[in-house]
């Protein structure tokens, strides 16, 4: 009898295609193209090809290792490294990535040297700080940075970008997007050039981009979470018309018993340094599943109705199954948020099962 590996992610490529194609079409009406972000799918060549067939114009990833994986698999598309490059990886970056997002002149200078040695030209997009306080050149320093970048051989200044709603939760809005557009206009006027990429941000920009506001100079968004999970990151609300179940996690029950809900003995810290909140709900039907913090962010999981996650350790997910007694070996399906998805995708202990598109069945 064939045994399916557990735990596993089941990935519906048709639903991912639908989500990507829908967003590409909606944003095209606003003059905005889509960079398909692959970091949450570990650079899956299959998913990359689905995004390209859905109309994304470029593939982005924060890890050069994932870009190399896609290149080895023959994914033919412009590739952009969307995390500031490490000095230790500049040779690999100019070899496998067409562009990279940058904030440091020292890094761009090393990219220049590496590109010259490789006989290549490398594109850069300068990231500007607009308040979220992650990566970005301060706006007052942008003009001088551009001046120095333009002097570097084998470097092509392709555009300017920004990132919001990641570190501090600052929402993209008319004010900060207008500021980015104004910076682009100013740089073009001062240096007499045209920037072809103005990357306004990520999936958190969708409320702004599709809300009817003037897009200004913004002509690109970097989308990952909205495509894979069908929701927007500001409030984690479903996006109308998109699938929220394109990717699901399935885990197996390894213990099912009736146990007290209140632990006994002297209470200290848990395995992860937390002080547990002790409550007494009497005896409960407790099921343990074979997955834990090493593989997933348990707080990012949503189980079926009637199953409540009450705790986890490295390798165990502990649930209260209410009135339902689960059998050992039962498979339980969970929906994931972005944090849980990233963790499961990068775990070697979670099998990834791709459901082929209809056209290939």
Overall spatial form: elongated
**Uncertain stretches of 5 or more adjacent residues:** none
Helix proportion: 25-40%
The CATH superfamily of the largest domain is known as Alanine racemase
Domain Alanine racemase N-terminal: 11-225
InterPro entries: Ala_racemase (IPR000821), Ala_racemase_N (IPR001608), PLP-binding_barrel (IPR029066)
Cofactor: pyridoxal 5'-phosphate
GO molecular function: alanine racemase activity; pyridoxal phosphate binding
Written overview of the protein:
By secondary structure, the protein is of the alpha/beta class. The chain folds into 2 domains: 12-238, TIM Barrel (Alpha-Beta Barrel); 247-355, no CATH class. The chain has 10 helices and 18 strands. Strands 1, 12, 13, 14, 15, 16, 17 and 18 form an 8-stranded mixed beta sheet that branches. Strand 15 (308-312) and strand 16 (317-320) form a beta hairpin. Helix 1 (13-28) packs across helix 2 (45-53), helix 4 crosses helix 5 (105-118) and helix 6 (142-149) packs across helix 7. The relative contact order is 0.14. Its cofactor is pyridoxal 5'-phosphate. GO terms for molecular function: alanine racemase activity; pyridoxal phosphate binding. Residues 11-225 form the Alanine racemase N-terminal domain.
Helix/strand layout:
Blueprint: E1 8-12, H1 13-28, E2 33-37, H2 45-53, E3 58-61, H3 64-72, E4 79-81, H4 90-96, E5 99-102, H5 105-118, E6 122-128, H6 142-149, E7 155-162, H7 174-191, E8 197-199, H8 206-209, E9 220-223, H9 225-229, E10 231-232, E11 237-238, E12 247-260, E13 283-289, E14 301-302, E15 308-312, E16 317-320, E17 331-336, H10 338-346, E18 351-355
Parallel strand pairs: 1-18, 2-3, 2-9, 3-4, 4-5, 5-6, 6-7, 7-8
Antiparallel strand pairs: 1-12, 10-11, 12-13, 12-17, 13-16, 14-17, 15-16
